[in-house]
């Protein structure tokens, strides 16, 4: 059933469709793990076949802890994708990861709980212990970085993504602990997506868009949602520029 797809994108908060996808078709994929968050849109971008899936659904109805990560990743693989980019809204912890920064993390710490984290946990499945020392594919990160540089989009190369359960934001104490642990960014959707991609031997990298300072990292007493959305909208504009340049 699958034809080659040059690149697949999983859009996070603020990215519900991919601008410029031509002659797009919608694929409602049924998977052994249930339904993906929405149909997968497959179209052409700069002469290449690109797939797009909205992680929270196109009208953002699925919270981070309810996303069917397994169905999403499986559907993209099934349609022929071998390279996947996850776009994730995050809070910034490290001093150079302030609002509107675009970062390409290179490490993850997983603080999530009660999510279905593996394709191996169904009866009869082969048990796989993937190597996850480097959770993101180095070659894909390098391509993203080179593309960003070519089009003049500033990105922070590297950083540790701390994945929290959500949907609530974190306490200051939780963020202080995450900082001590070595986290530079905090988000709710980076895991188990990255690990599931590795189980299916997909190349996978993350474009993290900083929406706000994480709790206690900025001057604000509280994190304001309108500000999160304004920052995200500004940072999201970088994504099609980087991706289009990468496909050139
Ligand atoms: N914490 C967790 N996830 C997030 C945040 C945050 O501060 N901002 C955007 N996604």
Automatic annotation (TrEMBL):
* CDD domains with a match to the protein in the record: MTAP_SsMTAPII_like_MTIP
Segments forming a coiled coil: none
Q: What InterPro entries is this protein classified in?
A: MTAP, Nucleoside_phosphorylase_d, Nucleoside_phosphorylase_sf, Purine_phosphorylase-2_CS
Please give the biological process terms from Gene Ontology that the record holds. L-methionine salvage from methylthioadenosine; purine ribonucleoside salvage
- Annotated residues that bind substrate are located at 188, 212-214
Q: Name a single GO cellular component.
A: cytosol
Report keywords, A-Z. Answer: Glycosyltransferase, Purine salvage, Transferase
Locate the residues binding phosphate: 13, 55-56, 189
> Which stretches make up the Nucleoside phosphorylase domain?
7-246
GO MF entries: S-methyl-5-thioadenosine phosphorylase activity
Per the record, the similarity remark reads: Belongs to the PNP/MTAP phosphorylase family. MTAP subfamily.
The record's subunit annotation is: Homohexamer. Dimer of a homotrimer.
* Name under which the protein is recorded: Probable 6-oxopurine nucleoside phosphorylase
Q: Which organism is it from?
A: Dokdonella fugitiva
């Amino acid at each position: 059933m699958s034809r080659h797809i040059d690149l697949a994108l999983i859009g996070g908060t603020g990215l519900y469709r991919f601008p410029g996808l031509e002659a797009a078709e919608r694929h409602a994929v049924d998977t052994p793990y249930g339904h993906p968050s929405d149909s997968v849109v497959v179209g052409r971008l700069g002469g290449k076949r690109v797939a797009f899936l909205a992680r929270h659904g196109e009208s953002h109805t699925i919270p981070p802890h309810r996303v069917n990560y397994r169905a999403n990743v499986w559907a993209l693989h099934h349609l022929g994708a071998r390279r996947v980019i996850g776009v994730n809204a995050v809070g910034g912890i490290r001093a150079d990861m302030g609002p509107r920064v675009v970062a390409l993390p290179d490490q993850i710490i997983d603080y999530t709980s009660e999510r279905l984290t593996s394709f191996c946990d169904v009866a009869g499945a082969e048990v796989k212990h993937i190597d996850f020392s480097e959770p993101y594919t180095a070659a894909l990160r390098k391509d993203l970085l080179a593309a960003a540089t070519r089009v003049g989009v500033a990105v922070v190369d590297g950083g540790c993504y701390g994945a929290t359960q959500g949907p609530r934001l974190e306490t200051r104490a939780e963020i202080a602990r995450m900082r001590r642990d070595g986290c530079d960014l905090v988000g709710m959707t980076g895991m188990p997506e990255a690990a599931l991609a590795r189980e299916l031997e997909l190349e996978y990298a993350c474009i993290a868009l900083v929406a706000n300072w994480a709790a206690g990292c900025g001057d604000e007493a509280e994190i304001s949602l309108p500000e999160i959305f304004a920052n995200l909208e500004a940072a999201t504009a970088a994504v099609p520029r980087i991706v289009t340049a990468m496909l050139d």
